[in-house]
From TrEMBL:
Protein name: DUF664 domain-containing protein
InterPro entries: DinB/YfiT-like, MST-like
Amino acid sequence: MITPDSYLTFCDEALDAYAVVVRELGDRLVNASVPSLEGSNSAFVLVSHVVGVMGRWGRTVNRGIVVPRDRDAEFTATGTADEALALLELGRARLHEDVRACDPAAAPVSPPVGRDGTAYATQGDVLLHVYEELAQHLGQLEVTRDVLLAGHLRR
């Protein structure tokens, strides 16, 4: 099975890529979404969301350490590029701590409410979900960046 260090390498690569995109967009575009795509998310929103995901699943679900989360607010969050980078670093530090504290074969301490638990039977399953979310939203972030920068360059 994958080691904590290997898992964190994959997560860190994704988080580093988020930071690159945030820096590329800067303060001017970090809160912009794709204008022609209703419901699209800004880079700041995506950062806020994945940090919420990491805290909820890695810390609250796996370890029983309650991290207050307002999921709806994640999708309206705004801020500067520096604030997004600081959020990423907070999320990364907590994720490192949470991964090192987990037992991949053990059941989550606080299984998700409203789910039967079979998809997340172990703490390792929960961590796989965290990486799934990081990767999925990184792709979304990169497409958002590409569209925003292409539109910005045409102006």
